[in-house]
Structure formats: C-alpha cells, structure tokens
Amino acid sequence: MNIRVANELDYPALRKIYLESRRKSFHWADIEAMTLDDFDKHTEGEHIFLVEENNQILGFASLYLPDNFIHNLFVHPDFSGKGAGGLLLQASIEKMEKPIRLKCVSKNHAATKFYESKGWKKVVEEGTPHEKYWVMEYN
C-alpha cells in the first residue's frame, strides 16, 4: 500500500469512498441525506492523504493542519481491516505536531476501538444528546 497527497483527479473516487463508507457505517444517521458533494464541503481547506494499492484508492484522511486535527479518516468498506486505516493514521500523525486531536462519534464503537488500539485516549465526551462524540487525543 502507498500513501500520497491527494489531488483533484482523485476526488471522484474519494467522494464515492466517503459516501459509501458513511452509508454503511453510520447506522444512526440519515443515509438518504448524504451526497457525493459532502466530501467537497467537509474537506474544504484541508490537507488530504490517500492510501492506494494497485492504482486503486482504498481510503483517505483529511487534516486541518492549523489545529493539528484529523477531521476525517475513511476506508472503503471493502478494504476495512486490512491496514489502510492504520497507514493513514500514521501518515497523519507524522504530518502534524502533538498533541493531535480528532472527534469520534460516540455511537461509532468500531472507530473508537480502532483509535484506542493505536494509542489514542478519550479526553471528553461532548455534543447534544442525539449527536455525542468523543474528543480523542494522541501525544
């Protein structure tokens, strides 16, 4: 697997990964409200890494560098559990200064478990009763 910075030519594939991943994993959300355009809105002004293998994009991470914040990290459902997420997380950590933070939806137990297995710690649970998330930190 190879990690590289994404470019505009990668965006059609990244839009699909973002949409398909959220529709499959976000069982608590209104999946019908999700669109391909969400990727562009939710990553505007961010540094984007992608992971690929055999010229196929498997996933991406988008970083808001001024705050050392991982905004998004998604792997296509077909490639989940094969190491792509860990590579994206490591590349993100190497790009930013510690401490690094991210937010993980409280109901996304698989993601929370993934981050904790990589050394991330839960700091505080925030949000509204219907949209709780963990602020997580890596030092």
UniProtKB/TrEMBL annotation:
PROSITE patterns: GNAT. GO terms for molecular function: acyltransferase activity, transferring groups other than amino-acyl groups. Keywords: Acyltransferase, Transferase. Residues 1-139 form the N-acetyltransferase domain. The keyword Acyltransferase applies. InterPro entries: Acyl_CoA_acyltransferase, Bact_Acetyltransf, GNAT_dom. It comes from the Bacteria. This is N-acetyltransferase. It comes from Paenibacillus chitinolyticus. The lineage of its organism: Bacteria, Bacillati, Bacillota, Bacilli, Bacillales.
